[in-house]
Design a protein that fits this description.
Structural class: mainly alpha
CATH architecture: Up-down Bundle
CATH topology: Ferritin
Order of helices and strands: HHHHH
Strand content: under 5%
Number of domains: 1
Radius of gyration: 17 Å
Shape: elongated
Number of strands: 0
């Protein structure tokens, strides 16, 4: 059984994950409007992944006898200055999500809620992967610089990402 504190924190995380999904969908829309189909596709897959994360938490709450309470989702930004700015914001956002996940783990540990702590371990690992992906993308964008050809090729490469 979840404590009320843990249940509320998990519900807050559902909201954060759904916001992430919404943010990445907004980034996908931005890329589509700029003609970067590959980047748009990558962000759309990212958006779907974040929604899946929210649903994992949603299902877990019920598994542990709690109640999922959906909250309002803030409208995300819809315009950026460049491809680089989008991915820089993505990295900052993933760092924020990592912090939120770490806080959930801390609550679970403080309450001796080992079932929730074990459940959250998957999210801890996922955030390591998310941040690593962002760093790799940003490193590649630095190498590309202002090359439109390089950006085009990189967009095509990222567009080949399949959902998992």
């Amino acid at each position: 059984m979840l404590s009320k504190k843990m249940e509320k924190a998990l519900n807050d995380q559902i909201q954060a994950e759904l916001y992430s999904s919404y943010l990445y969908l907004a980034m996908s829309a931005y890329f589509e409007s700029q003609g970067w189909a590959g980047f748009a596709s990558w962000m759309r897959v990212q958006s779907d992944e974040e929604r899946t994360h929210a649903m994992k938490i949603y299902d877990f709450i019920f598994t542990r006898g709690g109640k999922a309470v959906l909250q309002a989702i803030e409208a995300p930004q819809s315009d950026w200055k460049s491809v680089n700015e989008v991915f820089e914001e993505t990295y900052k956002h993933e760092q924020k999500v990592t912090s939120l996940i770490n806080n959930l783990v801390a609550i679970a540990i403080s309450e001796n809620d080992y079932a929730t702590k074990n459940f959250l371990d998957w999210f801890v690992d996922e955030q390591v992967e998310e941040e690593e992906n962002c760093v790799k993308i940003l490193d590649t964008l630095k190498l590309i610089g202002d090359s439109k050809h390089g950006l085009y090729m990189f967009s095509r490469e990222l567009g080949s990402r399949a959902a998992h």
